[in-house]
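Appendix B, record 7
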Amino acid sequence: MSQLFDLTGKVAIVTGSSRGIGEAIAHALADHGAKVTITSRNLEPCQEVADAINAKHPGAAIAVTSSLSSKDSLQAMVDATVEAFGPVDVLICNAASNPHYGPMATITDEQFRKTLDNNIVAQHWLIQMCVPSMIERKAGSVVIVSSIGGLRGSPILGAYAITKAADIQMTKNLAREYGPHNVRINTIAPGLVRTDFAKALWENPENLKHSTSNASLGRIGEPHEIAGAAVYLASDASSFMTGQVMVVDGGVVV
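Structure tokens (predicted):
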């Protein structure tokens, strides 16, 4: 059974992996044998994560800066990964932006555009940069970290939820395109997780109470609880799964 989750020899990119869910996923992939590129906007926190991984698994991680707003930056990060480790086998699109909390009527055009560009267009860029080599080898896995916000309406996360719904549709479309080449694409839809990114939703006790009141498990998640889903989708354990949304939310949607 352990061989199903073996990622030995696989090369992975995890965006937004200097902290939170991305960091937890990067550690889990490396623990299962993968070589991992740690990437976000700032090098220092990425290097700290890479150093921690390399302390456990020497040579398993590199740190490379990238920005969702720059196509050239993302291409340079992919190129650095290929140069260090070889062609990308696993792409985890985890990084996202959410510059606005509140009703849609209060979002600025700049905030709306940034949310759309970083959460949809940048994912499209990255996938198109990594998938051609997967198609050549007839093997590969792409995982987009979406959100349960993409599955239901929200009075305060409207633009973010729109982009997360779009990520889910992108997954379905690309699964149809890439399936004949044995390249799989799936989505993880987390609920509220204790990360800095989501701090505004859980730091306030009243917000936290509201967020967990309908959760079957009665609590929010921790970053490492999303990492297992990513390992599953990256590995041969999910070899017959594509175009799907894996909800990991403590039972909120149900």
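Remarks on this record: Helices lie at 20-31, 43-56, 71-85, 109-137, 158-178, 199-202, 205-212, 224-234. The mean pLDDT is 93.
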